[in-house]
């Protein structure tokens, strides 16, 4: 058994990323795995930024604080 860390490419940029630095993003719907991505630290940071930009982390400054949540 080898003690060398495994190196797999980042699914976004393709750069080799060791297991210790890799981050895995999993998308599941109703407990079914839809997508799994292995990302290097830089691509993971970009993914988090896109997630926050698209889904928001709270009300905007111009929002009156009201929000509507629809549960189906």
Would you write up a description of this structure?
- With 72 residues, this protein is α+β, with helices and mostly antiparallel strands.
- The chain has a domain at 7-50.
- It has 1 helix and 4 strands, in the order ββββα.
- The strands form 2 sheets. Strands 1-2 form a two-stranded antiparallel ribbon. A two-stranded antiparallel ribbon has the order 3-4.
- A hairpin with a 6-residue loop joins strand 1 (7-9) and strand 2 (16-18).
- It is flat.
- The N and C termini lie far apart (50 Å).
- The mean pLDDT is 81.
- It comes from Halorubrum lacusprofundi (strain ATCC 49239 / DSM 5036 / JCM 8891 / ACAM 34).
- Pfam families: DUF7569.
- This is Small CPxCG-related zinc finger protein.
């Amino acid at each position: 058994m080898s003690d060398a860390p495994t190196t797999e490419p980042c699914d976004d940029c393709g750069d080799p990323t060791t297991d210790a630095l890799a981050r895995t993003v999993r998308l599941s719907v109703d407990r079914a795995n839809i997508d799994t991505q292995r990302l290097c630290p830089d691509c993971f940071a970009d993914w988090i930024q896109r997630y926050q930009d698209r889904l928001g982390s709270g009300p905007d400054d111009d929002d009156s604080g009201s929000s509507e949540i629809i549960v189906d």
